[in-house]
Write a structure and sequence with these properties.
Length: 85
């Protein structure tokens, strides 16, 4: 572990020593791409958290013997038959 930290420190020092100042134009569309990446990452994180939350909630309910549909009135299933002649 210490060896890898020393190597990382060495690489970072070398990168800082040999940097060259550069003047470059950044297109305004780069900001749009950045916002899209951030929004996409937020959606992915939200989805993963939501799925994990539901799985954890289901496991806890199963352990405690809680049925979330116990007091709900369920309707009969509606089946459509298209073979009417």
């Amino acid at each position: 572990m210490k060896k890898s930290l020393k190597y990382l420190y060495f690489v970072l020092c070398m990168m800082l020593m040999f940097t060259i100042p550069v003047s470059a134009y950044i297109d305004p569309s780069v900001m749009t791409y950045g916002i899209s990446v951030i929004a996409g990452a937020a959606v992915v994180v939200g989805t993963v958290v939501g799925v994990l939350w539901r799985k954890a909630k289901k496991k806890v309910q199963d352990k405690l013997g809680i049925d979330e549909n116990a007091k709900k009135d369920l309707e009969d299933e509606v089946v459509f038959d298209d073979d009417e002649e």
